[in-house]
Amino acid sequence: MAFRYRRATVVALAVVLAALTPMATGCSGGAVGRVDYAVDGALSTYNTNTVAGASSAGPQAFARVLTGFTFHGPDGQALTDSDFGAVEVIGREPLTLDYQIADSAVYSDGKPLTCDDMVLTWAAHSGRFPGFDVASRGGYLDIAGIECQPGAKRARVNYLPTRSVVDFAQLFTATSIMPSHVIGDVLDTDVTAGLQSGDPAVVARIADAWNTVWDLKPDVDLTRFPSSGPYKIDAVLPDGAVVLTANDRWWGAKPEIQQVTVWPRDIDVQERIDDGTFQVVDVATGSSGTLTAPDTYQRSEIPSGGIEQLIFAPVGPLSAPPARRAVAQCTPRDAIAANARQPIANARLNPVSDDAFSLLESGPLADQYNVANPDAARAALEGQPLSVRIGYRAPNPRLSATIAAITRSCAAAGITVVDAASDGIGPQALRDGQIDALLASTGGATGSGSTGSSALDAYTLFAGNGNNLPGYFNPQIDGIISALAVTTDPKEQARLIGDAAPLLWIDMPTLPLFRQQRTVIASKSVFAVVANSTKWGAGWNMDRWALTQ
C-alpha cells in the first residue's frame, strides 16, 4: 500500500524532473562551492537501519552517500536509481526478482559493490539471524533467500510462496545497503560464507559489527565508512556535524556542489539562517521555534508521512493497557493538535496517507480520546496516583509545549507527568526503562520516520520488530499487518484497517496526536532543494542541488 499522492501528478513530475536534472546554467560546470544543511536530529551512526539509526537524522544526511536500487521522491514514491543498477521481475507466484548491480559500481575505497552487500542487508533485516538490532523487518522477512555467487554483481531474490510484497521497490533502497567488506575486514572473515554457515558464534560477531562498527564519532576511522554514492564522508566534527564531499569514484552524474556539511539540530537554527551560514534547513515544524525566512530565502511547509505520538514503554507503570488508556484519557489531543495547527491524527497502520483509509482508524473508540477526560482517567486508575516520565529529544519547543499541556490536564486525574527531555533521549531510553513514554514521530524518529509506504510503516507494531518500541504483541494485528503488505485491493485494505482499529484503541500501544509537518527553508542561491515527506527529507536529491550565480 504505497503512499497516496496529495499533489497533482503533472506538477509533482515536473518538480522531480527539475530536481534530478543538472543545471544547464547557473553553476560553473563542475562540483563547486559548499552548502550547510541543518537536519532534525543527531548524526550518531552511518547505519540508518539500526533502531537508533532509523530514529536519527542519518537518512536525511546519507541518501546520496549510500545509494541503492531506488531512492525516494518528494511524495515518498520509489524512484529507480539506474546508476546503481536494475531490477527485473522474473516471476509473480512466488515473487522472484533479479537484481543487477552496475558493472562500474564501486565504493569510494575502490572495492566493488557486489551481491554480498545485498546478502548482508537481507540477513540483518530478515529476523532469521539473531543479534542484528535492525529497526524493521518489513518486506525482508518475506524473502525466502538470495542466490548470490560471492563477488558477483547479480543476485536473485526469491520470496516465500503467497508473499508477493507489493512495495518491494522499498527494499534494497537508498541507505539500506551497507558495505559488507568493511565487516569482513574488521573481523577477518567472509561475511557471506559466515552467514551461510549458520554458525551462531560467527553470526553473532557479524551482527555485533553491523550494529556498532559504523558509529559516528569525531575521531572515527573513515576507512570504515566508504560511500556508494555521489558524496562521501570527509570528516566528523566535534559538535556532531558531518562533512560530505564529492566522491571522485562515483560512476554516475557528478554532484553539482563540492561540499555539503550536515548539522544536527542542536544549535540556534534561526540565528544561522539570519546570518546566512545555513543555506538549507529541513526540520519538523515548531521543533526549532517559529522560524522565519529572510527575503533571500524560500520557505515551504508540507505534511510528512510521520505521526507525532506517545509511544508507551514495554516496562514500568505504562506497560499495561489500562494505565496507557488512563494517560490517553487525560491527554488533550484536541488542544495539542490545535496548537500544531493540525487535525487530530488517529493513524497507526496507515500513517503516510491522509485520505479515506486514515478515517477507518477513527471511530467511537478513537473519539473518546479526542478531548481530555480526567474523571475517566481517574476512574480507570481506581483513584490511585500515577507518575509518568515522558521523554523527547530536546531542545524542542513544540514538544515541550505538548508535554506542558499533558501535565496540566493529567494533574486533575492524579497523574503526575515528568518532563524527561534531554538531547540523548530516543528509543534506547524507552527500551531501558529510563522513561515511561517517548514523544516522537513514526518509529521513534525525530523527523518524519516514514518510508513512504503505509504497508511497511505499519510494521512498527509487528511483534519482534526493532522499532516496535512498545513491545506490542497481538497475533490479530500481526496477521493484519502481514496481509496489508501483499494486498492491492482497496476494499480488502479498508476491511483490514477497519478490523485493526478497535483492537489498537483497546490495547493502546501508542497514542497518535497529529501529523508531523515539515518546514524547509532554503537560500535562493541554492537551486533544486525540494521538500520530501519521508525520513530521507530534503537530502534525497542533494547531489542535484546547485549554487546559482
Structural notes for this entry:
The radius of gyration is 23 Å and the shape is globular. It has about 550 residues and is an alpha+beta fold. The chain has a domain at about 305-515: Dipeptide-binding Protein, Domain 3 (Dipeptide-binding Protein, domain 3, Roll), CATH 3.10.105. α5 (about 180-185) crosses α7 (about 200-210) and α9 packs antiparallel against α13 (about 375-380). The chain has helices at about 10-20, 50-55, 60, 115-125, 180-185, 190-195, 200-210, 270-275, 320-330, 335-340, 355-360, 365, 375-380, 395-410, 425-430, 455, 475-485, 490-505, and strands at about 35-40, 70, 80, 85-90, 95-100, 145-150, 155-160, 230-235, 240-245, 260-265, 280-285, 295-310, 385-390, 415-420, 435-440, 510-525, 525, 545. The strands form four sheets. The protein has a ten-stranded mixed beta sheet with strand order 8-9-10-1-11-16-12-15-13-14, sandwiched between helices. Strands 4-5-7-6 form a four-stranded antiparallel beta sheet, covered by helices on one side.
Brief synopsis:
This protein is of the alpha+beta class and 549 residues long. The two termini are 43 Å apart.
